[in-house]
Design a protein that fits this description.
Blueprint (H helix, E strand, L loop, with lengths): L1 H22 L7 E4 L3 E4 L4 E3 L2 E4 L9 E4 L5 E3 L4 E4 L3 E9 L6 E9 L4 E6 L4 E9 L2 E5 L5 E5 L6 E7 L5 E6 L2 E5 L7 E3 L8 E3 L18 E3 L18 E3 L18 E3 L18 E3 L18 E3 L18 E3 L18 E3 L18 E3 L18 E3 L18 E3 L7 H10 L7 E4 L12 H4 L3 E4 L1
Parallel strand pairs: 2-9, 16-18, 18-19, 19-20, 20-21, 21-22, 22-23, 23-24, 24-25, 25-26, 26-27, 27-28, 28-29, 29-30
Antiparallel strand pairs: 1-4, 3-7, 5-8, 6-7, 8-9, 10-15, 10-17, 11-14, 11-16, 12-13, 12-15
């Protein structure tokens, strides 16, 4: 009996030992994650990567680090990545053994040390930048946030960020950024002096008080309008084709070195003198809302649009500008204007001047004619058969004939010298063409004496 009991005890202990061993089976690794999967550095800069093994109670916690290209970046046993030279490669983290082996890669971009662009944000809020170029770009947002993206010359690459701290320093690293847009932000500072390959810069609608583009000799397009700029030097930008610097606080602008310029919009400044004699390629010139007392466009034979309204011009010679299609010289001090050579004109605005005569007989392509607020005593529009809109209010016309203007649909002849019979005669010359048509006749001697039904029967709305 004693031997049997001893054997039973041995069997029980062995069984219990086997059962306990099976409960202690190791927990397998199911995965590994990194705190960052795409980072950007400059040579010499280091970054600590942190790996997390899953599940938390996995038996194997060891992580082995490896660089795909140690000529670009190296990695130490604790996951510290150090940039060596420009390029892009992967840092691999491996954990587990055998069938439980797991791995993950963090891609690292190393760019040159050149800080291409530096900015200072304004108030807090959302900002967005757009870039065209080659290679990679890094944006250091200045608040421990970094974006890295591969650039394209075909499509824009967009970087966006929400600032919670005002006046933050923003830096962009990379190379071959040819097109950069930081418009519609609240930037107070912008430095692009290191980005010598820049061809197009859009920085409009910001708070920039200065802008240095002297190093950007390849610049072809510059859009810096609606900033409080007080000075703009484009003398080194000899390749410039498009310059939009309107709505700033410029008192002068020298474009004498910009012989390739085709479009210049410097309106809404305080410029008293503008020399465009060297800009023979100029096609579009917008210089309105300035303080110009003189404007010589005799060398600008390619001009098709000239807007010089609200200045202090006493004369304007456009006899050489035979390509002109659109001329707006409203609100100046012109006493005469010869448009006889400008046979391609489709829109002519000469209102608010001191003209006593205006000959538009050669301007047979005119669609819009605005000559209000002058001292005209007569106006012959019989050759202007394409005319659709005619503004002649506040002149000294005693008669007006629009019989040949079959396309006319808007006529403002308020405040001239038309009697009741003269207005009736004018109504008779109106055409019954399709669509809405309006004629304004208020403040004429015959406004209350005329018969507006003559015009109304032709579909015209008469406004007195």
């Amino acid at each position: 009996m004693i031997k049997r009991r001893f054997l039973y005890c041995i069997i029980t202990v062995v069984f219990a030992s086997v059962a306990f061993s099976s409960c202690e089976k190791e927990v397998a690794v199911t995965g590994i994650t990194l705190d960052q999967l795409d980072v950007a550095l400059i040579p010499g800069q280091s970054l600590q990567l942190t790996a997390t093994v899953h599940p938390p109670d996995a038996a194997c916690k060891t992580v082995v680090w490896k660089s795909d290209d140690e000529n670009v970046v190296t990695v130490s046993d604790d996951g510290t990545v150090t940039a060596v030279a420009e390029g892009r490669t992967g840092i691999i983290a491996v954990t587990g053994e055998g069938s439980d082996r797991k791995r993950i890669t963090c891609f690292v971009t190393v760019l040159s040390e050149v800080e291409l662009i530096q900015m200072t944000s304004g108030e807090t809020g959302f900002s967005k930048f757009e870039i065209y170029g080659d290679g990679w770009a890094i944006i250091d947002w200045g608040d421990r946030s970094v974006d890295v993206q591969k650039l394209s010359t075909e499509t824009k690459t967009t970087f966006s960020h929400n600032f919670v701290i005002p006046n933050t320093r923003i830096r962009i690293f990379g190379k071959n950024i040819r097109d950069f847009s930081c418009s519609d932000n609240q930037l107070k500072y912008l430095n692009v002096s290191n980005n010598t390959v820049l061809q197009r810069l859009c920085c409009y609608n910001n708070q920039l008080t200065s802008l240095d583009v002297s190093s950007n000799t390849r610049l072809e397009e510059l859009y810096c309008y609606n900033n409080p700029l007080t000075n703009l030097d484009v003398s080194n930008n000899t390749r410039l084709v498009y310059l939009y610097c309107f709505d700033n606080q410029l008192t002068n602008l020298d474009v004498s070195n910009n012989s390739q310029l085709r479009v210049l919009n410097c309106s809404g400044n305080q410029i008293a003198s503008l020399d465009v004699s060297n800009n023979s390629m100029l096609s579009f010139l917008y210089c309105y809302y300035n303080q110009l007392s003189n404007l010589d466009v005799t060398n600008n034979t390619m001009l098709s649009i000239l807007h010089c309204y609200i200045n202090q011009l006493t004369s304007l010679d456009i006899s050489n500008n035979t390509m002109l299609v659109n001329l707006d010289c409203n609100n100046n001090q012109l006493t005469s204007l010869d448009v006889s050579n400008n046979t391609k004109l489709e829109r002519l605005c000469v209102g608010d001047n001191q003209l006593s005569s205006l000959d538009v007989r050669n301007n047979t392509r005119l669609i819009d004619l605005l000559c209000s607020y002058n001292q005209l005593t007569c106006l012959d529009v019989s050759n202007n058969t394409k005319l659709e809109r005619l503004y002649v209010e506040n002149n000294q016309l005693s008669s007006l004939n629009v019989r040949n203007n079959t396309e006319l649909r808007f006529l403002d002849c308020s405040s001239i010298q038309l009697t009741g019979s003269a207005l009736d005669a004018l109504f008779e010359t109106l055409h019954d063409n399709a669509g809405e048509k309006y004629i304004y006749i208020g403040d004429n001697p015959g406004t209350d004496e005329c018969n507006p039904s003559i015009a109304e029967k032709k579909g015209w709305t008469v406004v007195d």
